[in-house]
Amino acid sequence: MFRSLRSPKKHRLLLALGILQGDIVKPEEFINKRSQEVLAFRKALTKETDRGCALFATSYLDKALSDLLYCALAHDKKIKNDLFEGNAPLASFSSRIKLAFYLGKISKIERRDLDLLRKIRNEFAHNADAIDFEVEKIKSQCGELSFSYHEKDHRPRGHFTAACLGILANIHNETLLCQAPEIKADNAPSEERKKKARDDAQRKYEEAKKNA
């Protein structure tokens, strides 16, 4: 049985998913809900063309990574506009991968696989030709994915989807365990403190002037 986790502020994604009760996070419900979503995602992938598979799978991973970072960062109502939308610093898959790594949310090998998956996605997204996973460059990149549990000679699309699912499970687990920092309290000096500082400075100046 999972131990409940407190503080919905630190689990905003769970709150958004509607699986909080009072101030209690119910991890088993998070896992069940995510498991159902991943099963539906995996089933949908099988119906996609190779190009559709690459774009859909990496888009799903990108969103999961965005959710992880959203839960890992201090919360403010402007967080989406400031960090995740338009030309904001975390609007791209690449930038999200980098920050997740430097926050300690993904390992070096996870970062490497995510970057490989991103590069494979770009091959499909930026190529107007009718390409598939058997294209030599894409096939080679798929064979380098560490999170595929298949034998090395397995078909490249199988390596790709297996790696996506393996990393996705780790991201979901990290999201569940994530605890965000609080926004630092306002600490602007009061007018009284400012005046005291000015008076102290003036006094020291006068004393120094006398002793000169």
Quick rundown:
Helices cover 63% and strands 3% of the residues. It is mostly helical and 212 residues long.
Give the helices and strands, then pairings:
Layout: E1 5-6, H1 12-16, E2 20-21, E3 24-25, H2 27-46, H3 50-72, H4 79-84, H5 93-102, H6 108-125, H7 136-143, H8 156-177, H9 191-211
Antiparallel strand pairs: 1-3, 2-3
Describe the structure.
By secondary structure, this protein is an all-alpha fold. The protein is built from 9 helices and 3 strands; from the N terminus they run E-H-E-E-H-H-H-H-H-H-H-H. The protein has a single domain, classed as Nucleotidyltransferases  domain 2 (Four Helix Bundle (Hemerythrin (Met), subunit A), Up-down Bundle), CATH 1.20.120. It has helices spanning 12-16, 27-46, 50-72, 79-84, 93-102, 108-125, 136-143, 156-177, 191-211, and strands at 5-6, 20-21, 24-25. Strand 2 and strand 3 form a beta hairpin. Helix 3 (50-72) crosses helix 6 and helix 6 (108-125) crosses helix 8. InterPro entries: MtlR-like, MtlR-like_sf. Residues 190-212 have a biased composition (Basic and acidic residues).
Approximately what portion of the residues adopt beta-strand conformation?
Answer: under 5%
The count of DSSP E runs of length 2 or more, i.e. the number of strands, is: 3
CATH homologous superfamily descriptor: Nucleotidyltransferases  domain 2
By CATH reckoning, the class would read Mainly Alpha
Broad shape = elongated
